[in-house]
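// run 5 | inverse folding | seed 20
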């Protein structure tokens, strides 16, 4: 389950704001925002209201999204589907379904190998969080391992 700080983080990155920019707009110290996003610190409702105001979202939207992210969506991953996803991620074949194409695109954004620029970092964290909403940690690890295996065989 994503905690409220992670939801703020995802909204901040999606909005294209740095921690410093959001902290200035919300009128809070940047280290406090950082610790809140990492789950190391709780914030008062008044502070959360200022953060949501700076992000342009209602607090109810923040908690609604948190509830929607509580459990992975339950995507079924068979071994053949993992193999097909891995080949789509490394670009050997196209994904067979729209759902698999969307998953492959998310994995392409999080896979190591190239150093992301500023725009890449802005895509990396939301992509990772979205994958965590869809798949379990072990499913993500299985796909990443399969992709690495396929890449090493191709090299």
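// decoded
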């Amino acid at each position: 389950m994503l905690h409220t700080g992670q939801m703020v983080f995802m909204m901040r990155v999606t909005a294209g704001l740095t921690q410093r920019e959001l902290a200035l707009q919300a009128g809070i110290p940047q280290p406090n925002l950082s610790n809140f996003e990492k789950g190391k610190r709780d914030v008062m409702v008044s502070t959360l209201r200022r953060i949501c105001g700076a992000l342009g979202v209602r607090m109810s939207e923040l908690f609604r999204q948190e509830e929607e992210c509580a459990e992975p969506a339950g995507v079924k991953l068979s071994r053949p589907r993992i193999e097909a996803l891995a080949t789509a991620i490394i670009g050997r074949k196209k994904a067979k379904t729209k759902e698999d194409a969307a998953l492959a695109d998310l994995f392409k954004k999080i896979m190591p190998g190239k150093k992301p620029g500023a725009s890449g970092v802005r895509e990396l964290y939301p992509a990772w969080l979205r994958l965590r909403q869809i798949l379990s940690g072990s499913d993500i690890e299985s796909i990443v391992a399969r992709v690495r295996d396929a890449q090493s065989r191709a090299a």
